[in-house]
Amino acid sequence: MMTVDGTVIDDEDYFQQLPAQTLFIFRLNGETFETGADLIYNVLAAVNNNTLKTSIKIKSFMDENIKEKIRILSSVLDVDDESKKKKISSLRLRDPDWFQGLETRARTKEEFMFKRCQERIRSYMYKTKSDMIKSDFYIKQTKCRKYLDEVFKQFSELLTKNKHHGYYFDRSNTNGLCDEIGTFKCEGAWNQSVCSYERGTGHKINPYQSRESRIIFSTWNLDHWVERSRTIIPALFEASKMASEVHRSINMNYFYELLFTTVNLKLVHIVCHDKGQHISAKCDPNLYLQYKKVIHSFSYADNCLENDFNN
């Protein structure tokens, strides 16, 4: 018996010197075989050759009438997107995994997301009122207190009428912050016009797509451009002081928009949520008071279709 390197084996002593689990491959004269190294080399060579041939064919394909071919490729991608839309179901019965771990009676994803947004807007109301009531200004300034109580009463009434703007997270509502399949885009940090992530393409997420996406979306924030605690609440105190001096009403519409609507709220990825002071974002003292002395109720959402709020 002879090894590949030409060593002749004529006794058993050779085998005693070999390490355990040594692999033997026997072949007859004239036969060929491939070692492990040969197999790896051949696979890599085949892959590289195919890649090279493919790149040449792609270049040849794209050299001629490129605009028309890109248009065709785009239409194919659009078809794929349409098929994806159909796969993202709404009903709890069709996607029970999406609702796993939730204590909710919602029958659809849209219903749950609507309620989740309502919870966020309600929290702004509760926190703002709580901060106000605990403040020294509210406790000591009795003349101003009635103006603040009145404006918060109006806040509550209008929020109830507008269903706490739950439609912001509802993909079935045309006034929502997402597209029709439920994809949300980060609007960037408070001092940026767009999200700068990935060279301006921005953070994106579709919480309707999976349970994991829904959980991750809960870390996104509705960030006040003009800050609620640092700026809006002190401005409300100043407005109540001005109102008590000239016997006018606080401009509820102005402060309502700042606290509860996308006039002042930006949807941002957690990375883009800057918790530092928004130095340049200020309230406008010229808008603190109403021109009329009598407070009139109104709906912020008068320009929205009534059925948008009946979901």
Automatic annotation (TrEMBL):
Domain of life where this protein originates: Eukaryota
PROSITE patterns: CIDE_N
Gene3D superfamilies, alphabetized: 3.10.20.10
InterPro entries in the cross-refs: CIDE-N_dom, DFF40, DFF40_C, His-Me_finger_sf
One family name in Pfam for this protein: DFF40
Ranges where the CIDE-N domain occurs: 1-35
Signal peptide interval: none
GO MF: DNA endonuclease activity; hydrolase activity
A Gene Ontology biological process term: apoptotic DNA fragmentation
Keywords: Apoptosis
GO CC, any one term: cytoplasm
SUPFAM superfamilies hit by this protein: CAD & PB1 domains, His-Me finger endonucleases
This protein's name: CIDE-N domain-containing protein
Originating species: Acyrthosiphon pisum (Pea aphid)
